[in-house]
Amino acid sequence: MGRRSRGVNHAAQMSREAGGSKDSQKHRRLHWSEFSRFAARIGHTLEAVNEAEDWMLEFFVWFLVAGDMKPGTLANYRASLSVIQGAAGQDMSRSTRSRALRLERRNRDGRHRARTPQEFNDLLAAAEKLDDGVVHVIRLMRWLGLRMREALMCGKSLETWRDLILQGNRRLPIERGAKNGRPRRTEVLADHVEETLDAINAALAFCRDRDFELIRGCNDDLKSAKSRLKARFDQLPMRKELGSHSLRFTYAVDFGNAALDRGVPPVEVLTQLSDRLGHGPSRVKMILEVYCWQIRHRFPEKIHLPSDFVPLKEVRKENAAIPATAGAGDRAPRGKGWKHRRRRPVRGRRIQTNHMELQHGRNS
Questions:
Q1: Which CATH architecture describes the domain 117-298?
Q2: What CATH number has the domain spanning 1-107?
Q3: Which tens digits make up the pLDDT trace of 209-239?
Q4: Residue of 28, 195, 244, 254 with fewest CB within 10 Å of its CB?
């Protein structure tokens, strides 16, 4: 086995230790493999994750940008590398963060919207003519804000959900199919408890004799079931702004309106909604701009974000005098809230930390 192959295997091992779904681990390994290939092209064969320098990661980011990679895909690459490095005890420096590199942010606006009651009823009517299992998946996605994969795999959780609702509990655990393998808890909409319970009971009665599977593929596995469900969605009026994700938007709008009507503070509404949708309690701004754009007028024009958010302007001021390719010794002292972490020493670590130094060495 060559040195680069050992480095890719080490990255795969770190990815497994970091956890997450099999798909996430696979993508991390592929992203690291591409980075390792890039490092070899510039003369640095990585035999272990810890041998990667920050300047290599920075050059790799700009290499991807030069290849016209979309901001969303670029963010996925950088997240994969960051997770693998974190599992190896090597944190990325601030030089490779989006704000420090002035990278374009992905635009999530305007892609989906919430469905009206009539549009939802029309969708169910069309699905009933096509596949009963698809009907149950659609109803669960709409009333519980589930992702497609979560609704596809929730069959064995339906009985637990039903019992919790009958006991008066409105928080339901989502364990199967959760993104990145992170369990979460959704919440039954207070004004739609009966509709939610009816959807759960109907789905449970449908899949009880089908090994608790709502959709079955040709190969009797998850991959083929997911492919079949996507094919069914393509046959329904579920495209563009009314794609399958619009069902989660419908749940989000209903949740936001109900919470605001009860007098819940706006920031708390967004925090709760972010948690219920599985994005964690801290992605307030994204929830407001993406899922709640249709009810944006109900929130104050300026919302005081929680303390874990750092305004972009402050970061830009702090890093204004730092060149994009500066070395580790050129970094400005970190401000409040930043924790200094010592990086683990790496055998055979190279000294080059600056592209200009590298060019000067080659020219001499």
A1: Orthogonal Bundle (1.10)
A2: 1.10.150
A3: 999 999 998 888 888 999 999 999 999 989 8
A4: 195
